[in-house]
Design goal:
about 300 residues, 13 helices, mainly alpha, single chain, about 0% strand
């Protein structure tokens, strides 16, 4: 009986590891923005994503599965949506977003996941998650209110350019989480991770055709971009390990708390100043993420009583 206890809590350990890795990834994203254009970061970082994720091919579980076509397509879709979402995040940073703001905002992607899970996977939302949705919407509004004295006009009064890119990232990451659920129903998490990583390659190829890639950048730029990708790959390994032993809906919402790590690191590293309204939005976003992770405990199964003669 005691032998299975570590495995029951393993998903939480893996999720905490993923939170830290993705929080550091947020800081590396800001450094990457200072070194390279978004398209160049996305293309060069693909090396780090693929190399680290291919290590999962060594796992004996990689051949396990019930429907490799359905699971493979879903896992490949995770990589496509995640990689394009990452590019949108980089574009958001390039257009003026601060790390301490954009990461708590995009960390609300479980909001999209829950909506899609209700509509497509027939999952039900409890009242606490519903309240989390309301708090998340309030947080998005606070993030987007133009500063006093701003000269923004027209559509910019409703959404700034960096905000538009951030919303694209939020939506795509929310879709990716749903596809992760689908993938793990049919194939192993190890194979899912490998296919997730390989999906970054076609995105990188398309970007290298459309945009001029800064291949002759400094060693520092290459190092930052490769680390950017390696953290995605290693974070993906930890996250899929968490999905293997934990419920996907809970894992997804919990690891979305990683912006808290990014914020804590961004203030001293980048000397970003956070206004009171923004602090309120960040707190609401983190509280909403916690509420979105809450699931009503399942009722215990009835125990058959032994007959008495």
């Amino acid at each position: 009986m005691t032998a299975i206890q570590p495995r029951r809590s393993a998903w939480l350990v893996y999720t905490m590891v993923a939170i830290v890795l993705w929080g550091v990834w947020g800081i590396v994203s800001k450094f990457a923005d200072k070194e390279l254009q978004p398209a160049s970061t996305q293309v060069i970082s693909t090396i780090g994503v693929v190399v680290t994720s291919l290590l999962f091919l060594l796992s004996p579980r990689v051949k396990q599965g019930t429907n490799f076509l359905a699971g493979g397509l879903a896992a490949f879709g995770v990589g496509l949506t995640a990689s394009v979402g990452n590019l949108a995040l980089l574009l958001s940073l390039r257009n003026g977003a601060e790390a301490s703001i954009v990461f708590p905002l995009t960390g609300l992607f479980p909001l999209v996941t829950i909506f899609l899970a209700v509509l497509l996977l027939r999952e039900r939302m409890n009242w606490i998650q519903g309240l989390g949705v309301v708090l998340a919407l309030v947080a998005i509004f606070l993030f987007n209110v133009p500063p006093e004295g701003s000269a923004a006009s027209g559509w910019e009064k409703l959404v700034s350019k960096w905000m538009a890119y951030a919303i694209v990232a939020l939506v795509l990451w929310g879709v990716a989480a749903v596809l992760q659920k689908v993938a793990t129903r049919y194939i192993s998490t190890e194979l899912s991770t490998v296919l997730f990583a390989l999906a970054f390659i076609p995105v990188a190829v398309v970007l290298s055709i459309i945009y001029p890639i800064e291949w002759h950048s400094s060693g520092r730029a290459w190092g930052v971009a490769t680390l950017f990708g390696a953290l995605i790959g290693i974070g993906g390994l930890a996250l899929f390990a968490a999905y293997r032993d934990g419920k996907a809906s809970i894992v997804t919402a919990l690891y979305s708390l990683y912006p808290a790590i990014t914020v804590l690191l961004a203030v001293p590293i980048f000397h970003e100043k956070i206004a009171g309204r923004t602090w309120g939005a960040i707190v609401l976003a983190l509280v909403a993420a916690v509420m979105l992770s809450y699931e009503t405990p399942a009722a215990p199964a009835p125990v058959a009583e032994a007959g008495v003669r």
